[in-house]
Amino acid sequence: EQTLKQRLKDAPEGSYTKRLFDDEQLLRDKLVEEAQELSEAADPQEVAGELADVLYFAMVRAAKAGVSIDDAVVELDKRARKVTRRQGDSKSFRIAAGEAILNKTNTES
């Protein structure tokens, strides 16, 4: 987390992390792509690798927004204490948007 905060301030030109900070669409596409790959991972090693990718891109997004891991943990604690919760069903419009991004990525590969 500290490394990403520092990179946000002074990432070298041409670095991948700088590209992610500067290109919102690239970061969004990578988050969706890696989340899809995590959902399809079949064995523990593959899950660990894809989870690492998701965490990296999520942390880049958080650093860009000025949000820390501690902020996310506080939010999780708040949600765990709520008496009423939404059902937790998936949001179909988000699924469709993610599939569109993945289809775009797959045709470019």
Automatic annotation (TrEMBL):
Catalytic activity: 1-(5-phospho-beta-D-ribosyl)-ATP + H2O = 1-(5-phospho-beta-D-ribosyl)-5'-AMP + diphosphate + H(+)
EC number: 3.6.1.31
GO molecular function: ATP binding; phosphoribosyl-ATP diphosphatase activity
GO BP field: L-histidine biosynthetic process
Xref: CDD domains: NTP-PPase_His4 (cd11546)
Record pathway: Amino-acid biosynthesis; L-histidine biosynthesis; L-histidine from 5-phospho-alpha-D-ribose 1-diphosphate: step 2/9
InterPro entries hit by this protein: HisE, PRib-ATP_PPHydrolase-like
Class in the EC hierarchy, top level: hydrolase
Keywords per UniProt: Amino-acid biosynthesis, ATP-binding, Histidine biosynthesis, Hydrolase, Nucleotide-binding
Key word Nucleotide-binding present: yes
PANTHER family cross-referenced by the UniProt entry: HISTIDINE BIOSYNTHESIS BIFUNCTIONAL PROTEIN, HISTIDINE BIOSYNTHESIS BIFUNCTIONAL PROTEIN HIS7
Protein name stated in the entry: phosphoribosyl-ATP diphosphatase
Natural source organism: Attheya septentrionalis
